[in-house]
Amino acid sequence: MFYRPEDGHGLPHNPFNAVVTPRPIGWVSTRGADGSENLAPYSFFNAVAYVPPQVMFASTSAKPDRGDTKDSMANVRDTGHFCINIVEYAMMDVMNTSSGPWDRDVDEFEKAGIEREDCATIPCSRVARAPANLECQLTQIVRLPGEANFVAFGEVTGVHLRDDCLVDGIFDITRYQPLSRLGYQDYTRVTDVFSLKRPGQ
């Protein structure tokens, strides 16, 4: 099968997200300029550089009460910082609750009953029991083609690692089983790990 996206795929559901999988989930916490808190998951998320460490997340739709984007991106645009909270399998239900189309004045930490703590390097909350948190200072927002497609890039200024996920100095993802996004309404979790050495190493 071949199709041009501009012509449509002719399938019951768009297969694009099912092709680019699995995708890590960036559970983005932000604090608005007015002090309001927001927490929402984004599966267009990844690390993009080592030195200095940098990450990105993309928002691809808009809300009527935010104009051209959603709460997370609007807060980042207003304040210049955000925190990426890593989602473990055990937190899938509360993560899913935080993904709802809630009004801008709804605090998803409270809505989903999620414990929060203050970040150390930015004025923002983080998910207290997440396996890891990446505190980020915004470096740039890039507008992509499309009505509401924005990408926020941030430099990581602080990293929290949950102690029970550290084994002999290694951050062991099997201890928490990262939740990942697939296509359609599907998710998966990482339970098995294997190593491959690059040629010449």
TrEMBL record:
This is NADH-FMN oxidoreductase RutF, flavin reductase (DIM6/NTAB) family. Residues 18-173 form the Flavin reductase like domain. Signal peptide: none annotated. It comes from the Bacteria. SMART domains: Flavin_Reduct. PANTHER family: BLR2425 PROTEIN, FLAVIN REDUCTASE LIKE DOMAIN-CONTAINING PROTEIN. It holds the Pfam family Flavin_Reduct. InterPro entries: Flavin_Rdtase-like_dom, Split_barrel_FMN-bd. The lineage of its organism: Bacteria, Pseudomonadati, Pseudomonadota, Alphaproteobacteria, Rhodobacterales. GO terms for molecular function: FMN binding; oxidoreductase activity, acting on the CH-NH group of donors, NAD or NADP as acceptor.
